[in-house]
Design a protein that fits this description.
This protein is α/β, with parallel strands linked by helices. The chain has 14 helices and ten strands. Helix 3 (76-85) runs parallel beside helix 4 (101-109). The termini are far apart. It comes from Limosilactobacillus panis.
Length: 350
Amino acid sequence: MKKLRQLCFALLAAISLGGLIGMAGAYAKQTKASADSQQFKGKTLKVVTTSDAYKPLFNKFSKQTGAKVKFMSMSSGEVLARMKADKSAKPMADLWFGGGIDAFMQAKNDHLLAKDNSAAVKKISTKYRDPDGYWLSKGLTVGGLVVNKKVLKDKHLSMPTSWNDLTKPEYKGEIMMSDPAVSGTSYAIVEGLLDQKGNKAGWAYWKKVNNNVSFYSKRGKDPQEKVSSGEFAIGLIPVDQMAFKAAKQNDLKVIYPSDGVPWVPEGVAIFKNAPGQKVAKAFINFMLEPANMKELAKIDGKDTDQIIMPGVKGLDLGLKKSDLIKENVANFGSNRQAVLDKWAAMVGNK
């Protein structure tokens, strides 16, 4: 009996010691995690982005790393124009987050970007990242139409269902489109339909559409807003959850054109000579974690078929991958200036 009691005491002592060791180990891990989470304390990440909607994701990164984040909101065309005009060695931001990939490709050619060839980036399909590591995509933007049903009814206009419908004379003065030199989505639509139709037929098409457009907005948001207000019947827009919500609130209709859906990768890049390059690279690694990609898809309001990372689910917005136009993404960068020059000559002072 005495031996049994001693054995029980020994067993309890061993269990208690093991528990203490386990607690010590857990505390050590917790302390290390806490220290790691403050690796960029005192550092600031300057981000130029297309929308303030991304703040929750950056706030999460800030909480984990200790880095402060400062935002500037700007379209991709505006970023490119400002960077090219600025002759100082120090860029205006560390990270460029969002916008049509054509601007990022042009920025690479203009030697404005820094490389990031981290292991996380290399997990992305080569279709959605620069082979040299200068940019990557966070998802796809798809182009479509938004229509004000009341304006159509009041003016006895038919409902458009395709891109080809935009050439109909009945829509003269009723189409709102942003300048493709400013809006990455507009450029994606122009380039996508040129890819689909071929150069000669494509430009003939855009010449007919141009006859129906009174002017081209210098703001990417104008087509959605001006169609919502009833100033125009039809707008060329990025189709996402926000577009469908606005349609529901304003009695509009969002349309994936029946003759194909143009698309463009949305870029992410680090600026050359940026003081916060290390923090920017850390954010990209953070962004590419599956849980954060899923959160990003919700913020962007993306359909699953707009997401570049396999296995990450987005929303169901009725987009079919088979409806996406077959495009040569390389053309977005190599053709950009030539396309914009020809576009400017075609539209004149509109």
